[in-house]
Amino acid sequence: MTSQMAAAAAAGLVALAFTATVFERWLDRRRPQDASWTAALLLFAVAAFALLAGAAGGWSAVPFKVFYAIGAVANVPILALGTVYLMASRPVANRIAAVTVTLCAFAVGVVVASPIVGEFVSGQLPQGSAVFGPGPRIAAAVASSVGALVIMVGSAVSAVRLFALGGVKHRGAWGNVSIVAGALVLSSGGVLNSVFDAMTGFAVTLVVGVVLIFAGALLATGVKRS
After folding, report:
1. How far apart are alpha carbons 187 and 72 in whole angstroms?
2. DSSP SS3 for 224
3. What pLDDT is stored for residue 221 in this prediction?
4. 190 torsion bin: left (phi>0), alpha (psi -120 to 50), beta (else)
5. Long-range CB contacts (within 8 A, 24+) of 58-61
6. pLDDT at position 6
7. pLDDT over 50 at 53, yes or no
8. Are 52 and 12 in contact (CB under 8 A)?
9. Full set of structural domains in the chain with CATH
10. 3-class DSSP state for residue 134?
11. CA atoms of 52 and 19, how far apart (whole Å)
12. How far is CA 29 from the centre of its chain?
């Protein structure tokens, strides 16, 4: 097993373990933010195993489209729904969730239906700009940027509010800080390319980001919203 495969497998297993934990939390409490984080962590796991498939068997259209559709398009907006449910009233959050899921499904469809226009290079993580036309790349850019903005702004506002309340609310505030940190780590995967190859770097940032998001989810849902 190569280092690329080991890192991708580790990322997938970590994400699956955390998915099960947050899902169990959702079963106990039925809080919609837990459902959103469960779905997001599961998507992280799927992206990691698609990365493993590409590292193990070489990249082709199927594993890369799964990796791109889940990891670059759908994941961050679904993760952001957890922040939406923490910040907004349930009816408003439900409407936002319905629109988000619909748009994500459409964007994933764009990725799946789009032809591969470039060539895959053995042992290298493909870039969307090298193998896709503008449609999937625009979908990924919009989804990831809007989702990340919601997470960072929403979680920052929530953290400031909870820190101001003091006492036990600090736990929820640190949860929001951890979620922001996880989102930042996941968005900076390319930084590690100078230390590792692209696939290993992505897997490492995935593990670190998922750990931070998992910790944040547990902390943030440990405090009732005021």
Report:
1. 10
2. coil
3. 67
4. alpha
5. 58/120, 58/122, 59/120, 59/121, 59/122, 59/124, 59/125, 59/126, 60/120, 61/116
6. 83
7. yes
8. yes
9. 3-220 (1.20.1070)
10. helix
11. 18
12. 22
Q: Which two tokens stand for residue 193?
A: 């390319």
Mean pLDDT of the chain: 84
Distance in angstroms (rounded) separating the CA atoms of residues 216 and 218? 5
Tallying the residues shown for the chain, one arrives at 226
Give me 129's structure tokens.
Answer: 């700009």
Looking at the chain, the whole-number percentage of residues with pLDDT higher than 70 is 89
Residue 192 DSSP symbol: G
Q: Report yes or no: 81 and 36 within 8 Å, Cβ to Cβ.
A: yes
Kindly state the average pLDDT of the residues 63-81.
Answer: 91
Tokens standing for residue 54: 């590409």
From residue 49, how far is each of 19, 44, 116, 125, 157 by CA, in Å?
A: 14, 9, 21, 14, 34
Taking the CA of residue 110 as centre, how many other CA atoms within 13 Å lie in the half-sphere pointing to its CB? 19
